[in-house]
Every structure is written in C-alpha cells, then in structure tokens.
Design a protein that fits this description.
Rossmann fold; nine-stranded mixed sheet; two-stranded parallel sheet; 11 strands; 23% strand; globular; binds NADP nicotinamide-adenine-dinucleotide phosphate
C-alpha cells in the first residue's frame, strides 16, 4: 500500500480521492488550507496537514511530503481570479514539484485541464488565463525528471460517476463526473507502470481499471 500526499485534498475531486484511496487501504496525507476542513477529511480516513500553497516554501512543503510515495496535485483557484489562478494552479504546482523533488517523492500525478475546453465559445480573459496557466503547469511538470502523469479531464460534473471512462492520449472532448476522475487517479496510484504520459479523460464506456490498463507500456505485437 502507498502513502499518498494530496494537494487540494479538500476540493471536490480531492475529497472523493481521499475517500477512495482510504477504502482500498492506502494511507492518505491531506493538505488543506482551512482549519475547519480537517474534521471532514479525517472522517474520510486521511491524516491532515494544514497549509496554504500561496505561503508554503518548497522546503517546508517537502518536510510535509517526506515519506510519501505519490503526490497528487488537484488544487486550483476555481475561478477566483487571475492572480489566484497564477498563484495556485501555476506557482503552487511549481512549488509542489520542487517540494516532491526535495522530499525524494518520485511519482507525481497532476489534474490538469482538457485543451478543447470551451473552444468555439465566448470565454473571459480569466478563463483564457486559466488555460494558459494549466498548460504552463503541464510543461513545467513534464520537463522534470519525476515519474509524472498528467490527467486532462473534460468538464467536471458533480453527478454520481458511472465507473466507465474514455481515456487516451488524444480523444474527443466531453464531460466527466468528479467521482470517475477520482477513480481514475486512484487506479493510477496502483499502476506505476503508467508514467510520463499525458492522458485525456472523459466519460465513456470502458471500466476505469480496463481503460487504465490499456495505457500501460506499449506491448510488442
Ligand atoms: N471545473 C472543471 O470543469 C475542470 C475541468 C478540468 C480540470 N479541472 C481542474 O480539476 C482540479 C480539481 O477540480 P475541483 O472541482 O476538485 O476543484 P475545487 O473543488 O475548487 O478544489 C480545489 C482545491 O484547491 C484548494 N486550494 C485553493 N487554493 C489553495 C491554497 N492557497 N492552498 C491550498 N489549497 C488550495 C481549494 O481549497 P479550499 O477547499 O479551501 O477552497 C480546494 O480544496 C482543479 O485543478 C481544476 O482546475 C476543473
């Protein structure tokens, strides 16, 4: 079983992931920024650590991550403005990558965004900035020597997951339940052979475990 450190653990995807990982016996360390979030995260099975990504230095975040096997980054400013998007989705990811390297945690899973999100629709300057920051975060992580996986989900839904997804290196745009994003991330924790890949993810017809298995190292014909 792995020790998984979640950045953004109190978020909608984060909480679902905490619960799922705990259910299958992983140890979860949940970084959250509001003291009142600790009780709920602990009830879901996590050990909580309190900290704000905009204030933490890489060295102090590394101290919190020490001993973990996997870092999952699913934090985000959630439309709170460009400055916070830059600080959390952008700089916060860079600090987390630096912290993982300092702490010697090699595996790093990042929840990013689907490149076709809102294409062809009228978008705000803030949304365009969000997409730019998400791509820069991908570039930053992908250029590290870590054992990374970038997951780019389509538009996230709160409705219950189906347990079935469409996962691939390049797939048509779509929606996906947060439950199924959490389910997919949990499977990635158990599949270290899936590494250094950018995976697009939407709802689909393939059970999560099967969809993830198809993304493993290429089989010889
Ligand atoms: N919405 C979509 O359709 C969509 C599509 C594709 C990808 N995504 C990405 O998917 C990820 C997860 O989405 P979600 O729906 O779970 O988002 P969410 O519910 O907004 O969760 C984000 C988490 O990040 C935390 N966070 C924000 N600022 C922080 C800080 N300074 N220090 C520490 N933690 C901080 C938030 O803390 P609080 O709980 O304290 O606010 C929250 O728990 C995000 O990165 C998002 O950009 C979203």
């Amino acid at each position: 079983m792995s020790r998984v450190f979640i950045v953004g653990a109190a978020g909608k995807v984060g909480k679902r992931l905490v619960k799922r990982l705990g259910t299958v016996g992983h140890e979860v360390i949940a970084l959250h920024r509001k003291t009142e979030q600790a009780q709920e995260l602990e009830a879901l099975g996590a050990t909580t650590v309190h900290g704000n990504l905009t204030e933490l230095e890489a060295s102090s975040l590394a101290a919190l991550m020490a001993g973990s096997d996997v870092v999952v980054f699913t934090a985000g400013a959630g439309g709170a403005g460009m400055e916070l998007t830059n600080a959390i989705d952008g700089k916060g990811l860079e600090t987390s990558v630096a912290a993982a390297r300092l702490a010697g945690v090699r595996r790093f899973l990042l929840v990013s965004a689907f490149p076709e999100a809102m294409r062809g629709e009228q978008t705000s300057e803030g949304f365009e900035n969000y997409m730019k920051v998400k791509k820069s975060a991908d570039v930053h992580l992908a250029s590290s020597e870590l054992d990374w996986v970038i997951v780019r989900p389509g538009t996230l839904l709160d409705e219950p997951g189906s347990g079935n997804v469409h996962a691939g290196l390049a797939i048509p745009y779509g929606e996906i339940a947060r439950d199924d994003v959490a389910g997919f991330l949990a499977v990635l924790v158990d599949k270290p052979e899936i590494t250094r890949q950018i995976i697009e993810l939407t709802q689909g017809r393939t059970p999560i475990e099967v969809a993830a298995s198809r993304l493993g190292p290429a089989q010889k014909p």
